[in-house]
Amino acid sequence: YKNLQDFSGTINQVLHIKKILYEIDIIRFLHENLAKKIISLSDIVECFSMQGWLDELTSQKTVSKYHFEEQKSKLTEIVEKKRTTDIEHILAKYDKRLAAMNTLRNRDLLRLRKSTRGKKTSLRKLYTSGFEELHQIYPILLTNPETVSSILSLKPNLYDLVIIDEASQMFMADSFPLLFRAKTAFISGDTKQMPPSDFFMSLGGSAYDDEDQEEEDEDESIANNSRLIPADGEYCLLEAAEYSVQKGNPNHAVLAVHYRSEFKELIDFSNHAFYDNKLIAASSNKELPVIIKAPIELNKVEDAQAVKGVNRVEALTVVRRIKEIWQQQDTLSLDVITLNVKQKDLIDDLLFEEAQLNNAFANRLEQERNKSKDGEDIGFFVRSVEHVQGDERDIIIFSTVYDGVRKNFGAITKKEKGRKRLNVAITRAKLGMIIYSSLNIDGISNDNQRDESENYWFWKYLCYARAISSGDKKAAKSVLISLNPTFQQPISGIEPDSYFEEDVAEFLRTNNYHVDYQIGESGFSIDLGVKRNDNDRLYLCGIECDGRQYHNSWSARLNDIWRQKILENKGWRIVRIWSDDWFDNREQTQKKLLAELTQKVELNA
């Protein structure tokens, strides 16, 4: 830890000096004007004075001998040493856990299965009689509120911390068993996503399937009366936490970085419609999976009809697409989301029928349902929109069920809750969204109904999906602007952020590379994007220049291992150029840069 602190202090000293130089434009002034014919005596005096000051500063050993690439390697080495120390610490704790395990065994508390030797130990007895030892072995308990009440003693502060995720879906009353047993609570959730609901479970799948709105209201009343909850059915843990820890409080934080969507098109609609364009997502530099033609693919199902909440033609079309996807690839995860439970059940039935007739398909279906990656369940499922919050898959197939021109679309029609369900449904995909719809999109709603009907949001999303699916960027942008009229699209790729970036770009252009400035959004903006040809869809690499923006507080915090790792996960190959190397060892640095680009061209060939 001390090495890391010392290293950080040295870095900060160097960057502070460099920041001053950039702020007063000394470096830019020198490199622009010394290259020109300077005639004015005052210019000569001023220039030599500044050059003398610069020489004095850079003559200091800390600055002049500071090679950032070497320090980057040194930082990596220190971090690795810290990791080694952490491992040693973990192993020491493991030894203590072994001792605790032996204690439990000696007390005969580990008989968790039935045997001829005697009665098995219940989890409640294990946690009650052997809590201290068990706590050493398993300091983290992954559970739910109901299980907590059944196995843990009713004592306060049993745990230092309780972490509750998806808090928007938990009723306040259900959180008490967790909060009571912990010293500190970390509560996370999204107010734009699903509120607590037992709706479909209470109604056995009939919710929102009826044609008549009055029947839906009656069904809703039955569901709300099935348990003791506030009259509005909305008071959840997340709301209580936000009321208790309001914005501005140091314990209140907004997580603005969006990780899930590989392609921005998958999150842009929700970002504009529901999050006031405050989400930050790194731009992707990857090819689309071969099984889809666009990040959002909209397919119109012809001659289909929804009868009593099910659309058989659309369901059959979905099953055919599932079979096609599994025939084309075997690595991507896949799920199906429907607007109601009846359509979900129909698709499940059709899959079962196909499995009965086709052994190969039956084996593949079983394989996909049990699929996992790195210990995480990524198995195939078919679910209604009410039951997908928290899930994510590479590809999502979305069946909108209803046909023609309708005004009632089930769960997503309900005021306020409807847009939350829609938001959840359309943000589950990591790589691509495939929509099958029998609807006449243009008859669903209009711009005058924004504040009157939940249909407006569903209509806008389908308009956006249609634009993305057809490659109509202008229409897609028009939809986004209509959702958030006050939002001004940032202009990127036009101007360099510094003279340093401009100089690097001009050098690359003279070597027949195409260069764009400022790729992506703030926080994940890349200084230069380099292509071999202008019409190439993907960039060879992104170049990060240690220029003026590097010292901006927000960029400085993100310009680290974490930020670069995210960009690399999005398909970017990042090349970093330091201004010291570029201006002091220009020829060597330029040769190194061209060699790296040549290597990347060969990799892409």
Concise synopsis of the structure shown:
The chain is of the alpha/beta class and 605 residues long. 48% of the residues lie in helices and 13% in strands.
What is the topological layout?
Elements: H1 2-23, H2 26-33, H3 41-58, H4 61-64, H5 68-106, H6 123-129, H7 131-137, H8 145-151, E1 159-164, H9 172-180, E2 182-187, H10 199-203, H11 213-224, H12 237-244, E3 257-258, H13 265-273, E4 280-281, E5 296-300, H14 312-328, E6 334-338, H15 341-357, H16 359-369, E7 372-373, E8 376-377, E9 382-384, E10 393-404, H17 417-425, E11 429-439, H18 455-470, H19 473-483, H20 499-510, E12 514-519, E13 526-531, E14 541-545, H21 553-558, H22 561-569, E15 574-577, H23 579-584, H24 586-604
Parallel strand pairs: 1-2, 3-4, 5-11, 6-9, 6-10, 10-11, 14-15
Antiparallel strand pairs: 7-8, 12-13, 13-14
- The CATH H-level superfamily of the domain at 287-483 is P-loop containing nucleotide triphosphate hydrolases
> Looking at the chains present, what oligomeric state does this protein adopt?
single chain
Tell me the number of strands: 15
Walk across the major sheet and give the strand order.
Answer: 5-11-10-6-9
Highest-level CATH class of the domain at 287-483: Alpha Beta
What would the average pLDDT be, to the nearest integer? 81
Give the low-pLDDT segments: 199-233, 551-555
Integer-rounded radius of gyration: 30 Å
Q: CATH topology of the domain at 287-483, which one?
A: Rossmann fold
* SS-derived structural category: alpha/beta
State which percent range the strand residues make up. 5-15%
Count of helical stretches: 24
Helix content: 40-55%
> How would you sum up the global shape?
globular
| CATH architecture label name of the domain at 287-483 | 3-Layer(aba) Sandwich
